[in-house]
Write a structure and sequence with these properties.
Strand content: under 5%
Distance between the termini: 48 Å
Oligomer: single chain
Order of helices and strands: HHHHHH
Radius of gyration: 20 Å
Shape: globular
Number of strands: 0
Helix content: over 70%
Largest sheet: none
Structural class: mainly alpha
Length: 206
C-alpha cells in the first residue's frame, strides 16, 4: 500500500508541475511576443541590404561584416532591453524561463551555423537559410506546446516546408524567400501575440 501511495504522490506532483506550466503559459506570452517582431524585422532588413549588396557586386567580406555587426549589435541591444524588462517584471513564470532557454539555445545554434559554418567553408553561405529554417521550425513547435497555442506550433510546418524549398532550389533568391518567410511566419505571429498579450494584461487588471 505504501508503494502505491508513493506512486500516487509522484503522479500528483507531476500533474501539479504541468498545471503550473499551463497556468504560466499565458503570462509567458507577454515576455516573448516582442522577440518575434524584433528579430524578424532586423534580419529581414539585413537580408534586403545583403541582397542589394550582391546585386552591386560588393565583396563577400563586407557582406559578412554586415551580418556580424547587425546580429552582434542586435543581440547586445536585446540583452540591455531584456535586463530592464526583468527588473520591471512583477511575476516570473516557469513557462517563461523555458521559453527563454528555448530561444536562447536556438539563437546560439543559428549564430554558429551563420558564422562558424560559413567561415570554415563547411558549406555554401546560401545554405544558411534552409538550415536556420529547420531550427526555427523546431523552436516554433516547442514554443507553441509550452504556451498551449496550437497555431504557433503549426507554423513549424511552414518553416520546414520552406527549408525543403530552399534546399531544392538554392540561389540568390533564397534571401528574398527567407525574408518573406520571416515576415509571414515570424513578424506577423509576433504582432498577434503582442496584441493578444496586451488584451490579456488589460483583462487581468480589471
Amino acid at each position: 500500500m505504501s508503494e502505491i501511495s508513493i506512486n500516487i504522490n509522484k503522479a500528483e506532483e507531476e500533474i501539479s508541475v504541468i498545471k503550473k506550466i499551463m497556468e504560466d503559459s499565458r503570462k509567458a506570452i507577454v515576455d516573448n511576443g516582442w522577440h518575434y517582431i524584433y528579430w524578424g524585422s532586423i534580419v529581414t532588413a539585413a537580408l534586403v541590404i545583403n541582397y542589394i549588396m550582391v546585386l552591386q557586386n560588393v565583396s563577400v567580406n563586407k557582406q559578412g561584416m554586415l551580418w556580424f555587426i547587425s546580429m552582434t549589435g542586435a543581440a547586445i541591444l536585446e540583452g540591455i532591453i531584456e535586463k530592464r524588462r526583468k527588473k520591471n517584471a512583477k511575476v516570473k513564470t516557469f513557462a517563461g524561463t523555458l521559453l527563454n532557454s528555448l530561444w536562447t539555445g536556438a539563437g546560439i545554434c543559428m549564430f554558429i551555423l551563420g558564422f562558424a559554418g560559413t567561415l570554415s567553408g563547411a558549406y555554401n553561405a546560401i545554405m544558411i537559410f534552409p538550415l536556420i529554417s529547420i531550427i526555427l521550425g523546431a523552436a516554433y513547435l516547442v514554443s507553441g506546446v509550452i504556451q498551449n497555442i496550437k497555431w504557433l506550433s503549426i507554423i513549424s510546418a511552414f518553416w520546414w516546408a520552406g527549408a525543403v524549398l530552399l534546399l531544392l532550389i538554392p540561389g540568390i533568391h533564397s534571401m528574398l524567400i527567407f525574408g518573406g518567410m520571416l515576415i509571414c511566419f515570424q513578424i506577423f505571429p509576433g504582432m498577434i501575440l503582442y496584441v493578444r498579450s496586451k488584451k490579456e494584461l488589460g483583462a487581468q487588471q480589471i
